[in-house]
Specification:
Blueprint (H helix, E strand, L loop, with lengths): L1 H13 L4 H7 L4 H15 L3 H12 L2 H10 L12 H21 L3 H20 L3 H20 L4 H20 L3 H17 L6 H20 L3 H21 L1 H21 L3 H21 L1 H21 L3 H21 L1 H21 L3 H21 L1 H21 L3 H15 L7 H18 L8 H14 L1
Helix pairs in contact: 1-2, 1-3, 3-4, 4-6, 5-6, 6-7, 7-8, 7-9, 8-9, 9-10, 9-11, 10-11, 11-12, 11-13, 12-13, 13-14, 13-15, 14-15, 15-16, 15-17, 16-17, 17-18, 18-19, 19-20, 19-21, 20-21
């Protein structure tokens, strides 16, 4: 049946209206075909993963949900974009079954499994971009694990608690809550190091992840020496793990090499940073060539970060090439999965506009910035707290470019557009928006004229903001 599913999946990519044919192919045969469909989803991409996820959520029994949940954790599938919804649906379905069992027959060992599964669900939600729900899942898992430890839970429960803390630290970081990220990542690392002597490869992998999160949080809070030490230690662990299991460990080594490159760059060691970044790029190019459905997003991320490093070393042309390739890959990914990759595309296009501006190509930089703003307007509708500062910054860049091109009429219109969009959020996001709004208002005032009169509503909004700040 796999060839038929492959044909239907490829057809649904070209003709979205045929998705229902895919669903019909599973009628009465979900248990038989579900695992074959995982392979097809990775091979073809497209909507088959989402179709399967919907069916799993509604129809899968406990055995099938557990099988799919475990399959999605295998090395070949864990990072697969087309399987993100399947992994989440199977885990949530299995949690529902287990919760029902625990409500009738409380069992500490099953509570331990339930907490671990909650943590898995939190990780699945993060891969779908729902970091707040991810945070909630990890906190709930930690509460159960803490109760189990109070009642005599052993090292296995303590290890799971540390893993939950590490995942919580990552979620706090993505949400910009860096003090909380540092606190939880440091505690996770402390516990895992205490257990390190008895850790298997999975435990060492968890320690490396915790060190990665710790290094990022330390870096964001200006503690560069400690951040670099954490980054080096994570890479050292991953190199050991590669010798034991390259299939499992090489993707993680590539990720930690790129993080180490960032830490080295912050300390001013640009040459070693580029060596580590290029090693990461080589690994990820190989992985993406072998399994694009799984590793293309990480290749795009490496190119995105490499553009930063090259720009910092004054290699503007090379930086532009890396950033343009990252944007091209992310455009491809966002066309297939906008909900998962629109933010990444916006970030790479923003970097592309900066690289073009660095090379004296403001017209092209402006075109990229206009596209970026369009993407951020959609993202702000979804998550204003997370994306408003980025939207404000990009509106500011658009005005800078128009000012450099000496286009006062377009500058006035752009500043007015930015102010109209941002002023309504000033009361609730004053700290994040104040400086950009002040800059936009300056452009607005300087480029106004008799032919370009100031909008009274904008002037009232600015006066109200000034009154609140007084």
């Amino acid at each position: 049946m796999q060839p038929a599913l492959t044909v239907l999946s490829r057809l649904a990519i070209r003709r979205p209206e045929t998705r229902e044919w895919l669903a019909r192919a599973f009628e009465g045969r979900l248990t038989e075909l579900a695992e074959e469909a995982l392979e097809v989803a990775v091979e073809t991409g497209g909507p088959i993963g989402q179709v399967l996820a919907s069916l799993v959520e509604d129809q899968a029994g406990p055995d099938l949900a557990e099988r799919l949940m475990l399959r999605c954790d295998e090395a070949d599938f864990r990072e697969s974009v087309p399987l993100r919804e399947v992994a989440e649906a199977a885990t949530r379905r299995q949690l529902e079954f287990l919760k029902g069992e625990l409500s009738t027959r409380p069992d500490p060992s099953q509570s331990h499994v339930f907490a671990r599964m909650l943590g898995n669900l939190g990780s699945r939600r993060s891969r779908l971009g729902d970091w707040r729900e991810s945070l909630r899942c990890h906190r709930e898992a930690m509460k159960i694990q803490g109760d189990l430890l109070k009642n005599g839970g052993g090292k296995e429960v303590l290890f799971d608690l540390a893993t939950s803390l590490a995942n919580l630290g990552q979620a706090h970081g993505v949400l910009g809550e860096w003090e909380e990220a540092l606190l939880t990542s440091r505690e996770a690392t402390r516990i895992l190091k205490k257990l390190e002597v008895g850790l298997d490869s999975g435990g060492l992998r968890a320690l490396a992840v915790s060190l990665r999160n710790l290094g990022i949080a330390l870096s964001e809070l200006g503690q560069a020496e400690e951040a670099l030490a954490a980054g080096r230690e994570a890479v050292e662990i991953q190199r050991k793990l590669v010798k034991q299991d390259p299939v499992e460990a090489v993707p993680d080594l590539a990720r930690d090499l790129m993080n180490l490159a960032g830490r080295l760059s912050e300390k001013g060691d640009g040459e070693e940073a580029l060596v580590r970044a290029e090693e990461s790029l080589e690994l990820r190019r190989t992985l993406a060539a072998e399994r694009p459905g799984i590793f293309l997003p990480s290749l795009a991320l490496t190119l995105h970060n490499l553009g930063f490093l090259l720009a910092g070393q004054g290699r503007s042309e090379d930086a532009l090439a890396a950033t343009a390739e990252a944007a091209k890959l992310r455009r491809q990914l966002a066309s297939e999965r906008p909900e998962a990759f629109a933010a990444d595309l916006a970030s790479s296009l923003y970097n592309l506009s900066n690289r073009l501006a660095d090379l004296g190509r403001p017209e092209e930089a402006l075109a990229a910035t206009e596209e970026v703003i369009g993407l951020y307007l959609q993202l702000v509708d979804r998550a204003p707290d997370r994306f408003l500062p980025d939207l404000a910054n990009r509106c500011g860049l658009r005005c800078q470019l128009l000012a450099s091109l000496e286009r006062p009429a377009e500058l006035f219109a752009a500043a007015e557009d930015g102010l109209r969009r941002l002023i309504p959020y000033l009361a609730s996001h004053r700290e994040a928006l104040n400086s950009t709004v002040a800059s936009l208002f300056s452009y607005y005032m300087d480029s106004s004229s008799e032919d370009r009169p100031r909008d009274p509503e904008i002037m009232r909004g600015i006066r109200a903001a000034l009154a609140r700040a007084a």
